[in-house]
Amino acid sequence: MLLPLKDRTLCYDLAGPETGEVVAFTHSLAADLGLWAEQLPALLNGGYRVLRSDLRGHGGSRAAPGPYTMDELADDLIAIADAAGIERFHFVGLSIGGAIGQSLALRHPHRVRSLMLCDTQSESFPDAATHWGKRIATLRETGTVAAIADDTMERWLTPAYRAAHPLRWQQIRDTVAGCTAEGYIGCAQALADFHYTDRLGTVRIPALVACGSEDPRATPEESRRIAALLADGRYQEFTGARHVPNVEQPDTFNRVLGDWLRHVRAQAR
Question: How far is residue 154 CA from its own chain's centroid?
Fold first, then answer.
């Protein structure tokens, strides 16, 4: 489905029973809503309603002129939820999606039932200007995210996963390569300029912070720190996974997510 707005069009998918609790997913930089394909069947079988959306300039969403802010990207999800008639939802976000979840919790706490923040950070890395600056320069020079697709996949998934699942690996790589340079650059600029660390202690929403043990950038140490800052935070590690544990270890991820949602439901009674 498409949501046309003033300067952009947002793409989203909504599946499951209208009476089910909504679980909203936000993907990582350069991915699209298909990154959650492994989670969809398990949640539908559990009676949940699943909302997946594409970031600006990713997948089926049209980019707005950049740069973007993390709060603007979070407000895109609120706009989608409003259009779909969804008042409250559980949120699952990976990488930049996890940062977007923190913005939602800080600015729209009445809309969020729970948080699962995966392989993410609470503020821009100290080397953000250099790290993202180099990638932005490459994309502006080449005009395509394909130039950094192989490097991205190296960080996201292990060689063992690629050997065992070559078709799925190729699907994800093709999606990365197909991301628009404008959308990537705008979101990278949001990642290079945000800071939620000092405010996370005010978040009272139940939160599970998860991370692949082999994530080379959004490290387990960073995730443990975020969980400790949150008033109702806990930590979960996916041993042997890199940056995308929901794809690399889908059965384990789905079990953890399902257990988490049941815990939140029981806690709310």
Answer: 18
